[in-house]
Design brief:
The structure is a single chain. The chain has about 475 residues and is mainly α. It has one domain. Helices cover about 85% and strands about 0% of the residues. The protein contains 23 helices and no strands. The protein is globular.
């Protein structure tokens, strides 16, 4: 139990590194929704769709490969050096090529040419810190990891507030001079991207010691082995990213032009309320991924993996029901403009989809510790096909509701595929009875609260209290052991 207590302690710190910055960035959602109509917010969301996809391409699975090889190779410094040189070289090639073909990239991605320079800069700066951040996780330095991540988002948030709220008022106040020079009307999207450039540049500066103190040890044979491991991870990442963000792009392509970005803006804003589940799942994954690799050769790793998944489902079930119950409170706090609220009905659907995705990440341990990463690519590709097909055929008729259900279908399918394949290649004794019980009760109570009781807060709170009481009654001994560290 002490081992799990240490795991949850690290997960908590990684959670701060993920949840707290994202909670700070949640302040950007009411800011964006108050200064921009849904159509313009849709334009911003489209840029970030392509960020997500290109981030995967520029990382090409090296983060996961770094974990695997850094923990099992006799010369971890050589793994670090080879990884850093590889990422730096590929990033430089991308920078030169994208600057040369920026016009073509603008047309291909449907991103205004005014934003392409910022787009390229952010991608390159973020790529250069992939391995430094992975090193912090591999060496179990979650506190420093959290500090840098929080610094990044605070800088980003600060400049967003300055550019979108403070600067316009300074320019309108009549002071003139510098403020008039800096301020440009109808420049909101550029200001958002400039804020990201500054934050990413400061993050790279903080992490630059990894490059400045680098001992040049480039091992081609090692890189080939790492790429053999990482490329399936990259393809899985691309397919996974399609599942996560490509529906927003398809909304802009498959709906009539006059409403496309407006509908996408509404969907993207309400989708972000599911971020509470995503934050939890991401924090959990950041904590358990190094644990998976470091304990793969321990005495009974499968039992530990099964217990971790049980804990995830228990906590995730609470978050699912809690967010659904407080959905109307959250929308007032984070989505200020009522023009966006039309899409609130998708919130329980995408929350459950994010929950399924988190379960999938826990189940995926089998192909990571057995070096069968190609199965990750196959599973994610299957999810991507489901995402694209459902969106393609049903968006013209059902708009963003099709996108929400496509996300749920994709992540649910990935979860089931991973479980059944894992049972064949690396069977883990999951407590399916407990998993289905908590998941089923949480989904049932969420549906009652949101759809049957029409989001009545008091009835929803009653269901949440009943669920928490049931949880305490059944898990009391485990919770006490975790707290006491026994």
């Amino acid at each position: 139990m002490k081992l799990f207590r240490k795991l949850f302690k690290q997960t908590f710190i990684y959670g701060l590194a993920t949840v707290l910055p994202r909670m700070l960035s949640f302040l950007l959602l009411p800011l964006y929704s108050s200064v921009m109509p849904p159509g313009l917010y849709g334009e911003v969301s489209l840029v970030f769709v392509w960020f997500a996809i290109f981030n995967v391409l520029l990382a090409y699975g090296m983060e996961t490969a770094f974990f695997r090889f850094y923990t099992k190779e006799a010369a971890p410094q050589k793994v670090l050096s080879t990884s850093l040189i590889s990422i730096a070289s590929s990033t430089l090639i991308f920078l030169l090529a994208s600057l040369l073909f920026r016009q073509e990239i603008s047309g291909l991605l449907n991103i205004d040419i005014r934003y392409i320079g910022y787009f390229i800069a952010i991608l390159c700066l973020d790529a250069l810190v992939i391995i430094p951040f992975a090193r912090l996780r591999a060496t179990e330095r979650p506190a420093f990891y959290a500090t840098v991540k929080i610094t990044n988002i605070c800088v980003n948030l600060g400049f967003n507030l300055f550019f979108l709220l403070v600067l316009p008022r300074l320019a309108e106040s009549g002071y003139g001079g510098t403020w008039d020079t800096l301020y440009r009307p109808d420049f909101e999207v550029s200001y958002i991207l400039i804020s990201n450039v500054i934050a990413s540049a400061i993050t790279l500066l903080i992490m630059s010691g990894n490059y400045l103190r680098l001992t040049l040890e480039f091992d081609r044979a090692l890189l080939r082995r790492m790429l053999y491991y990482s490329l399936p991870v990259m393809f899985a990442g691309i397919a996974f990213t399609i599942n996560e963000v490509f529906d927003k792009y398809l909304l802009t392509e498959l709906l009539p032009e006059e409403i496309a970005k407006t509908e996408m803006g509404k969907y993207a804003a309400c989708y972000r309320l599911a971020m509470f589940m995503t934050l939890f799942a991401t924090a959990f994954r950041l904590g358990i991924e190094p644990f998976f690799f470091s304990h793969a050769s321990s005495e009974n790793p499968k039992k530990a993996y099964a217990q971790i998944t049980n804990y995830f489902v228990v906590l995730g079930s609470v978050i699912l029901l809690g967010v659904v119950v407080f959905a109307d409170v959250l929308k007032v706090l984070f989505v200020r403009d009522q023009a966006y609220w039309e899409a609130m009905a998708i919130v329980p659907i995408v929350l459950l989809a994010s929950f399924f995705l988190g379960i999938y990440h826990n189940l995926s341990v089998w192909y990571k510790v057995t070096d069968r990463t190609r199965f990750g690519a196959v599973i994610s590709f299957a999810g991507a096909v489901i995402t694209i097909l459902i969106n393609y055929f049903f968006i013209p008729r059902y708009s963003y509701f099709a996108s929400a259900w496509a996300t749920l279908a994709a992540y649910g399918s990935m979860m089931l595929l991973s479980y059944f394949l894992g049972r064949k290649y690396y069977p883990i004794p999951y407590n399916l009875r407990k998993i289905f019980f908590y998941l089923g009760i949480s989904v049932l109570f969420s549906a009652l609260s949101f759809y049957v009781f029409n989001r009545n807060l008091y009835l929803g709170l009653l269901l949440l209290l009943v669920f928490l009481g049931l949880l305490y009654r059944m898990e009391k001994e485990v919770l006490l052991k975790l707290i006491r560290g026994k």
